[in-house]
Amino acid sequence: MKYAYLALPLLMLTACEPAKEGEPVTRTRIDGQGIPSATPTPVETASGTTQVESACRSIIFEDTPLTHCLATPSRHRVSMDLGPSGDAPYRSLTAYSKAHSAGSIAFAMNAGMYDDEGKPIGYFVEDGNRLQTLSTADGEGNFHMKPNGVFFGSGETWEVRTTDDFLANVRERPQFGTQSGPMLVVDGKLHPEISHDGESRLIRNAVGVDERGRAHFVISNAAISFGKLARFYRDELNVKNALYLDGNVSALWNPATDRLDTGAPIGPIVVVEKKDWTDD
Asked: Residue limits of the Phosphodiester glycosidase domain (predicted)?
């Protein structure tokens, strides 16, 4: 195997280069020991208290620690969130967490690239409302490293497609969607401009959907190259289409382990909620 489970938590891991938008991300906790659960489930401890298993696991791929979070359509809902209705974007998972019940959230993560105000620069749909149109423009930066792509879905059907594929074949507006770039894996092959293990190393996160319709969210807990992250999706997760979400500003909220990453301002947020949660 190319990866191993982490035996001990790693604390205060930060990005290796300063983010243009602000301070580098601080990781307050690395979560999820052992085999991942498809969804957080309550477990009674010896003291009689109830803990919640994490939807995320910590692993090492080659020499890099990662956190892998699994969303399953039968047990989770996926949505996008930018900010309170009619207000400015949250700009952080801390602000988002203060406005939402931790009990209902399996995990949340930054989900795409944005402008100076935190608004998405590509296609973005929240609760069926399109807040930004699909971008086919050329330009500089990771977003414009073609092919880029879209993570989207409605109900229990979630997908990652290249932007051209989405434009040509998706006719109905999904319930959620976010455009980012570059694609890491396209139809089982690495992006043509991504090398095996390039010199650019940052804290990075991404999403891919497997053949069973499950969404695999990955965030690195140390600096990682595009190539290594892409190979993890292709070789270990067997995901044929994976999309890069962002780098250096990447952050995760996992209430099950009290992990709440802080750092540079973010933009769009993807939220994975528990279907079986009730506010008793």
From this structure: 106-251
pLDDT of residue 98: 96
Summarised one tens digit per residue, pLDDT across range 65-107 is: 999 999 999 999 999 999 998 789 999 999 999 999 999 999 9
Contacts of 86 (CB under 8 A, 6+ apart): none
Average pLDDT over residues 47-60: 74
Put simply, whether the predicted model's pTM sits higher than 0.90 gets the answer no
Nearest to 254 by CA among 54, 8, 17: 54
Structure tokens at 183: 């694609």
- Nearest one of 235, 258, 270 to 28, comparing CA atoms: 258
Q: What is the 3-state secondary structure of the chain?
A: CCEEECCCCCCCEECCCCECCECCCEECCCCCCCCCCCCCCEEECCCCCEEECCCEEEEEECCEEEEEEEECCCCEEEEEECCCCCCCCCCCHHHHHHCCCHHHEEEEEECCCECCCCCECCCEEECCEEEECCCCCCCCCHHHCCCCEEEEEECCEEEEEEHHHHHHHCCCCCCEEEEECCEEEECCEECCCCCCCCCCCECEEEEEECCCCCEEEEEECCCECHHHHHHHHHHHCCCCEEEEEEECCCCEEEHHHCEECECCCCCCEEEEEECCCCCC
Contact criterion met (CB below 8 Å) for 250 and 110: yes
